[in-house]
Write a structure and sequence with these properties.
Layout lengths: L2 H23 L16 H7 L8 E4 L4 E2 L21 H12 L2 E4 L4 H18 L5 H4 L9 E23 L2 E20 L5 E25 L2 E12 L2 H22 L14 H14 L16 E13 L5 E2 L1 E11 L4 E14 L3 E15 L6 E14 L2 E16 L4 E12 L15 E13 L3
Parallel strand pairs: 1-3, 1-4, 2-4
Antiparallel strand pairs: 4-5, 5-6, 6-7, 8-10, 8-16, 9-11, 10-11, 11-12, 12-13, 13-14, 14-15, 15-16
């Protein structure tokens, strides 16, 4: 073999070693794993730490199944795998055991149980003919005072999706996320008269994320270097279903204590007050919660004041435009949750290196549109008109449009980042008329926004 062939073999081997090392660094699986115990969720710990009842409640579950009939979403053709695990009855029974409040009895496969008991009776009658008949009788089956019904009633795909990425000179990175949601209803039914004693409803999001990086570069005329790395993580649907069911069981227990439906099982001196108060606070906080765990009532009141620090760069008839610092303060009044009127005053400097430098101040009026006013994080766009005043020069008039991102750091305070494009009505901001293009300016700003007033 030639030296070139040996070089290629060495390079490929070296690259494989690097990739194996990177796999270990990123924590990617490279060896088979031994079987382990099932994961314990945070809701499991909450169930196991509940105060114990005075006596356990015998409870039966005939069927707690997936009622959605939904298949896994697929981008490439049909997928006949179900989106929701089909063993939800088993998961519910395990949650009832973990709570230490209930004695679950077998009802899902009651036919198998009755058939086995019949085999036992037949065997005893055949082989123990002379024994006492009373000794051959099987103890009676437990019967349930309460039945649990319900199921998984919804699996919503892609309730939130998004991503972020950038690429420059052949080097790029990106991240994406997707959020699904599963919804569960659980109700307790009295076997005495069929009354529905309590119904609870819980939901759990399912998060999928991916991070990718790539490198693409020609290092010579006939040499191309390309590299990629990526990591995807999907929250298991089974764990999400388990957490939602465990949360439903806990809610059923606490509401049953609060509304006194468990009867003798609740000890009058059981110390349930702290548990009930914590649950009531959670219910109050949950009021008004939107999809995705957002609390829109806490954000963006009727009026706000803001202040920005900005950098401006002119696009005029001279060469050498220079970036300068400026600022803006203003006032917003919301006509609707989505739309507001903005009035602001700004100070900025337009400069061409060693040619001209002018300081301007002036008012602007804008209409601003928030895309997601019910969320903590929202893009926005705006547009309007304004004026520019400077000593010794005539006033100038312009239009502007822009957009940005707002993030609520508390109930009344947000951070903003924006980009604005100013378009002049005339071509003489710097005192020179040259060509057909009107004078323009580009601004970038960051600032803080304070909300107050009634919603």
């Amino acid at each position: 073999m030639t030296t070139y062939t040996y070089t290629r073999i060495f390079f490929c081997s070296f690259l494989l070693c690097i990739l194996q090392a990177c796999s270990s660094i990123f924590g990617l699986p490279s060896d088979p794993e031994k079987p382990t115990m099932g994961e314990v969720t945070s809701s499991t710990a909450e169930l196991k730490n509940l105060p114990l009842p005075k006596e356990k409640i015998v409870i039966g579950v005939y069927k707690f199944r997936d009622q959605t009939g939904q298949y896994k979403p697929s981008e490439n053709g049909n997928n006949w795998s179900t989106a929701v695990p089909q063993g939800t009855t088993t998961i519910l029974i395990k949650a009832l055991e973990d709570s230490h409040w209930f004695i679950p009895i077998e009802r899902e496969n009651i036919a198998n149980l009755l058939n086995e008991r019949q085999i036992i009776r037949s065997t005893r009658q055949e082989y123990i003919k002379d024994a006492d008949k009373n000794s051959q009788a099987l103890p009676p089956l437990l019967y349930a005072g309460i039945l649990l019904e319900g199921g998984v009633i919804s699996y919503d795909s892609n309730i939130l999706t998004g991503g972020l990425g950038a690429r420059y000179f052949g080097i790029g990175a990106s991240t994406q996320y997707r959020q699904d949601r599963i919804t569960i209803y659980l109700r307790a039914v009295s076997t005495l008269n069929g009354e529905i004693l309590k119904t609870v409803y819980t939901s759990k999001t399912i998060l999928s994320t991916s991070v990718n990086g790539s490198f693409f570069r020609y290092i010579d005329t006939e040499r191309l270097l390309e590299a990629e790395v990526g990591l995807t993580q999907n929250e298991p649907v089974q764990l999400a279903v388990t957490e939602a069911i465990e949360k439903a069981v806990k809610s059923l227990i606490v509401e049953g204590i609060r509304d006194k439906i468990w009867g003798k099982a609740v000890d009058s001196n059981g110390g349930y007050e702290a548990l009930i108060n914590e649950y009531n606070r959670e219910q109050e906080q949950n009021n008004g919660r939107a999809v995705g765990g957002k609390y829109p009532e806490n954000y963006r009141q009727k009026v706000s004041v803001f202040a920005n620090v900005e950098g401006q760069k002119v696009k005029d008839d001279y060469v050498g435009p220079k970036m300068n610092a400026g600022g803006k303060i203003g006032f917003k009044y919301f006509l609707t949750p989505y739309l507001n009127v903005e009035l602001n005053g700004s100070y900025f400097t337009l400069e061409n290196s060693n040619i001209v430098k002018r300081n301007y101040f002036g008012p602007e009026v804008n209409l601003e549109y928030l895309l997601f006013p019910k969320y903590r994080f929202s893009p926005y766009i705006y547009g309007g008109a304004g004026a520019m005043y400077s000593s010794k020069y005539k006033p100038q008039y312009k239009a502007q449009f822009g957009g940005g991102l707002e993030y609520m750091i508390s109930r009344n305070v947000s951070l903003r980042a924006s980009a604005q494009y100013d378009l002049g009505f005339k071509d003489n901001w710097e005192g020179l008329v040259n060509g057909k293009r009107k004078d323009q300016a580009l601004r970038f700003g960051i600032g803080i926004n304070f909300y107050f007033g009634n919603k």
